[in-house]
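Slide 14.
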Amino acid sequence: MISAKTSVSLAATGLAADPQFKADLEQERRELEDKIDLSVYPVLGLGLVYRF
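Slide 15: predicted structure.
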């Protein structure tokens, strides 16, 4: 299994100067990083061939 830490980036304009808005945006970014799971699972293939 391959697993990597997910990175989320959020950007805003207009209200970006408001400190409360910045704090809320950062909290949302952290919550999204925790919720997103991009794990990759290996696929195993098995075959059997018989020839006469």
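Speaker note: The helical segments are 19-35.
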